[in-house]
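Example record for the data management plan.
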Amino acid sequence: MSDLIHYRLEDGLALIGLARPPVNALSQPLRAAIIDACERAAADTRVQAIILHGEHGLFSAGADISEFGSDASFAEPDLPSMLVRLTEIHKPLVAAIGKLALGGGLELALACGYRVGEPSARVGLSEINLGLLPGAGGTQRLPRLIGAESALNLILSGAQINAERARMLGILDRIATSADQLLDEARAYAYELISCSAPARPAEAWPEPAEGLPDDFLTRYRAEHEPRWKSRLAPRLVLSALEAACLLPLEEGLARELALFKQAEASRQSKALRHVFFAEREAARIPGIEADIPLRKVDKVAVIGAGTMGGGIAMNFANAGIPVALLELKGEALDRGLMQIRKHYEISVKRGKMTTEQLEQRMDLLFGTLDYADLSDADLVIEAVFEKLEIKQQVFRTLDEVCKPGAILATNTSSLDVDVIAATVSRPQDVIGLHFFSPANVMRLLEVVRGKATAPDVLATTMKIAKRIGKLPVISGVCFGFIGNRMLEPYVREAHRLVLEGAAPAQVDGVLTDLDLNMGVFSMLDLAGIDVNFLIRDANRATTAHDESYCRLGEELYAMGRYGQKTGRGFYLYEGRNRKDDHEVVAMAERLSVELQVPRRPMDDQEILDRCLFVLINEGIQLLDEGIALRAGDIDLVWINGYGFPAHLGGPMHYAEQLGLDKVLAGIQRYRHALGEYGEMWFQPTPLLERLVAAGRTRIERI
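Corresponding structural encoding:
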């Protein structure tokens, strides 16, 4: 037998253990080994039942994603055909599910007649996260097992559900007493099936998957959910596959599913989402630092500042079971911060996401203090005070005095110079930037800012701890705004300029949301706070002082105290959650355009899209050229997870590659000439983009 399979014959049972570390990805070699082993067991008269299991515990995390889009994806034996063959074996097959059965791994388990899982097992069909649908029977067998509505919700969510939920739905027949007992109890289950002459496959629980549902269920489901799907293809294909499960015999439904899967696999959206998948894994690699570097111990954390950001940061660590000291200078501010954290947890309790006991456990991990001396034993200290350099420097001077040797000192600055902050302490090697995004207890992105003196073990430790608290860490070098806010600046600038030239804020935002961005520029500024954006830009004024028109509209709103949603007026008017266009803003833009001698004209949607995205892309490529960003994929992750760029477009760098780097360069050059002095100033193509196009490259990388 293959090294990928461990085959054992035990008293009438064939035990087939999948042994392709680390997650038993169902690549072509493993598929071939599985079918060979199952055929061997089917032909052996001594074998009365077959058990499929993970040789090292884990069952299977699904298909080998690197095969998608290549010939290997359907190289014989392809997964759909292999699973059809498993369903034809005339002996009971039991899937013993340890740890995970995801995507193709769950489809493998569904092809078995019976399933038992360990208590901590998680199962799910997660293909939607890659712009795909289950293509090996998942959309056909699952509805026949748990009904169309439950199957549809599970597939479209891409969620992983626990063993108890899987048992209640009918995916698992049994849950083993423990992980250690899984294989023994799978054996016992197999012997029960043998003793009662159980069929190789039980009768379908839902032979009519849509039974009990209204005739127009799928039509109404589509109408209700399509606005949220925007331009995403995969959810619509899933719905078509479920419709096939409800209307067609299994064999025809499987053929329909396969055709839909191939359509999804060939789509640009799936290609983009697979790019994001691999970019996340690549982001964990730190060039020049070995994976086995000794890490610093982080058993206790301190957060300075109990405001919205500081409280959110503290929650991340409490959620991970790590004690947190939360420091404020005034008792009222500390009490307010702790109360706000409790309110967040209480909302989670009301929504059923945690129990009251879990709430109290997390609050017990939070220790409020007004005394810096209480931070003396902290392993990691994160400063989250007001975004002003002098204030942060003073905090770090104090930390230098009170923190123990080897403690990691982190600043949560969103734009300030981490090296200047590090220079205020006697141990700059221990200083790093950890830029959390608001709300910090929700947003997944964490920019990890490596200073010129930051020690390698400090960087590696913070990357590890970021994953421990559920964040996606992306490394950035030191510059104004790091990756995200550095790119945000030209993007916001161009949106302001377009309004001066004749576009309305709603038109600019509409063009961007039509591309499926979560928000347009002006909605985003109103949400984040026009005052916050002004203060960030004000700190960088030296680089923009030569352009009088630079975000003047936002500056006037700031001067008027119109800060956005929190004041009820910004670029838009707000009545509760309802947003309305504000004609005063348009009139203000008209007045400013006369004052600044900016000609106004009707603005074409394509020009709005091009100008906003071209300056965004150009700045990202410049960041890569400077070494601020390590990889183009890192830039994409920042903008997808921090700024709402649609993942199914792959991020701004991948979007540029799909558009064509030559077209991006030509567009920048076109606006450079068409927009006069403004174009000469701001539409300067980065040298790396010019080099890439000259070399005929189609991917964004340093050359």
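Summary line stored alongside the record: The chain is about 50% helix and 10% strand.
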